[in-house]
């Protein structure tokens, strides 16, 4: 597929041109960025069961990955350090390999029912300290490692995006049956053709069993 092209006259390529397109930010938005986790950020993190972590390869290729657990799963080690358990996944290890090559990360925390979000930027390490991992165990199962982030920037983000999207509004929830199952889509993408009904039912059942057995 060819890249969609645009006239250079309609493409922003420098920060000065970008800022000329928008009004100046207001004072509170400029001042709200902290270099540590204050009590409000700590309270937000304690209520959050879900975050997205943005990472980059050494060459700057970007990736964003979700992380989820019971609320408060991210452990605050001190006012500038937090630990995220790495639970079992598909073993692509995109996030972890990126951190090994390039420690810069961005975190976005969500709390169900809150329209505001919390953003944290910092530098991450991959840590296998047994005491830390044991403190992050669920159902007696400790993670293989933890992503430990040294905080550079912390700030609360306003509600506009979640209010526009009506993310928490049950009236906006879509019927999952509108699209094929995950295994149906992956089979189509990887095999080039949909699986037959019997095979697909087994694949869906196997995935649900894997979820049951390997969340932790």
Automatic annotation (TrEMBL):
Gene3D superfamilies: Electron Transport, Fmn-binding Protein, Chain A. Pfam families: PNPOx_N (PF01243). Residues 38-158 form the Pyridoxamine 5'-phosphate oxidase N-terminal domain. This is Pyridoxamine 5'-phosphate oxidase N-terminal domain-containing protein. It comes from Silicimonas algicola.
């Amino acid at each position: 597929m060819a890249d969609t092209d645009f006239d250079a006259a309609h493409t922003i390529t420098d920060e000065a041109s970008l800022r000329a397109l928008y009004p100046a930010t207001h004072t509170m938005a400029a001042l709200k960025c902290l270099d540590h986790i204050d009590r409000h950020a700590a309270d937000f993190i304690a209520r959050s069961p879900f975050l997205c972590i943005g990472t980059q390869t050494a060459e700057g290729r970007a990736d964003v990955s979700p992380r989820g657990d019971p609320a408060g799963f991210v452990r605050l080690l001190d006012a500038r350090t937090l630990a995220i358990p790495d639970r079992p996944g598909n073993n692509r290890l995109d996030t972890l390999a990126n951190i090994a090559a390039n420690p810069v990360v961005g975190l976005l925390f969500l709390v169900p029912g809150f329209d505001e979000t919390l953003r944290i930027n910092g530098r991450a390490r991959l840590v296998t300290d047994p005491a830390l991992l044991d403190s992050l165990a669920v159902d007696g199962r400790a993670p293989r490692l933890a992503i430990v982030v040294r905080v550079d920037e912390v700030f609360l983000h306003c509600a506009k995006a979640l209010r526009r999207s009506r993310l928490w509004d049950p009236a906006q929830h879509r019927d999952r049956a509108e699209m094929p199952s995950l295994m149906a889509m992956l089979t189509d993408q990887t095999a080039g053709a949909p699986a037959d009904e019997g095979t697909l039912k087994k694949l869906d059942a196997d995935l649900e069993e894997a979820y049951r057995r390997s969340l932790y």
